[in-house]
Specification:
The structure is a single chain. The longest helix has 22 residues. The protein is built from four helices and five strands; from the N terminus they run αααβββββα. The chain has two domains: 67 residues, no CATH class; 67 residues, Beta Barrel (OB fold (Dihydrolipoamide Acetyltransferase, E2P)). β4 and β5 form a beta hairpin. The chain has a five-stranded mixed barrel. By secondary structure, it is an alpha+beta fold. The mean pLDDT is 87.
Length: 143
């Protein structure tokens, strides 16, 4: 076994084990897996610079692929009391528009996917999903 192969195996083991003590959303673990792959590759590829480049490419690819196919569920935040906002643009049924909420423009979607909300109408902010506010028209709630 070549010296570089042993180094890549040790680096891979250290990176994978570090995930147990310092959680990094599996980034260190994936970098460790990449180091193991490069350890196998180092048996046929002797140039250290090419090995390092392969490790970088494998690590980046694994991180990007896992983020794309294994995404965490979006956090839903509840807003305690229904708060008033005003639509800046219309909110078509099932689509997003913009509202003015606490002095800032926010992306917003109606809680009822069948309801159209025109521009410059007061709405209640029910909750927040990521950076999108879920709203209901004021006139719909008071009728």
């Amino acid at each position: 076994m070549a010296f570089t192969t042993l180094i890549w195996l040790i680096a891979g083991a250290c990176l994978c084990l570090s995930e147990l003590f310092i959680p990094t959303a599996f980034v260190a673990f994936l970098m460790g897996i990449s180091a193991f792959l490069v350890a196998l590759l180092s048996l046929v590829l002797s140039n250290l610079w090419l090995q390092a480049l392969c490790w970088l490419l494998f690590s980046t690819s694994l991180i990007v692929l896992t983020r794309k196919y294994i995404s965490l569920p979006r956090r839903k935040s509840r807003i305690r009391d229904a708060i008033l906002a005003e639509t800046i643009t219309e909110i078509p049924p099932g689509k997003t528009g913009r509202v003015l909420y606490e002095g800032n423009s926010w992306q917003a979607r109606c809680d009822d996917e069948q309801t159209f909300i025109p521009a410059e109408q007061r709405v209640y902010v029910l909750r927040r999903e990521g950076t999108t506010l879920i709203v209901m028209p004021e006139n719909l709630l008071h009728s």
